[in-house]
Automatic annotation (TrEMBL):
A GO biological-process term: malonyl-CoA biosynthetic process
Superkingdom classification of source: Bacteria
Catalytic reactions of this protein: N(6)-carboxybiotinyl-L-lysyl-[protein] + acetyl-CoA = N(6)-biotinyl-L-lysyl-[protein] + malonyl-CoA
A Gene Ontology cellular-component term: acetyl-CoA carboxylase complex
PROSITE patterns membership: COA_CT_CTER
Its EC number(s): 2.1.3.15
Class of enzymatic activity (EC top level): transferase
Pathway named in the protein's UniProt entry: Lipid metabolism; malonyl-CoA biosynthesis; malonyl-CoA from acetyl-CoA: step 1/1
A Pfam family per the record: ACCA
Keywords: ATP-binding, Fatty acid biosynthesis, Fatty acid metabolism, Lipid biosynthesis, Lipid metabolism, Nucleotide-binding, Transferase
Molecular function GO terms recorded: acetyl-CoA carboxylase activity; ATP binding; carboxyl- or carbamoyltransferase activity
Name of the protein described by the UniProt record: acetyl-CoA carboxytransferase
Amino acid sequence: MIERPTTLDYIGKIFSNFFELHGDRYFRDDKSIVGGIATLNTKPVTVIGIQKGKNLKENIERNFGCPNPDGYRKALRLMKQAEKFNRPIICFINTSGAYCGVEAEERGQGEAIARNLIEMARIKVPIISIIIGEGGSGGALALACGDRVWMLENSVYSILSPEGFASILFKDPSKSQEVAEIMGITSYELLEKGVIEKIIKEPKGGAHKNINLVAASIKEELIKELKILESKTKEELLEERYKRFRKFS
């Protein structure tokens, strides 16, 4: 939904002193992923998120929230920087999937996503990932290998879009609503299955109806959860993260 708040909307409401950092140090800056350093209360944190636009012009600039490999490499660069300076990492996810254009494949889209999965599994600082809209396929998972994965109440998280699933399963994308029920992509279904740890409630009509309320809820939960995660040793953090994802196999 075009009205849903974006990553930058939440950053502006939850954090202070946000300083955006650009570029992957290999090719270019991908505007579909934003990231930088910010303050959560008095705590320095690294914030990374997938950014969509609110109109056609912004969506073209942000590639409709479909990152190129340069974006994932930028995200990883910021995560490694966070690890070096012992800053927790907060990721906001809102994408239908990674960009699948020829140029993205030529620059190693699959490798960039796989590299993020490998590296996030062993980063020695807390990582909390929050799905604020769509969480589609490996494009979302490349920022969701955290210690905690949360979802806004009306967001979705899946291996691919229902239309894509219906095309593969039935050769008919019009059956997307039918397969969506089979896939179990809603926040409540995924919480029940243990895929996520927490649901952030939204006001009636969606987060855009009262972004201040939703942002305040996210901020409160982040502060509480980071206290828990930061009380663990680095070894405990990595072991629990490993077990979290092994239980899905």
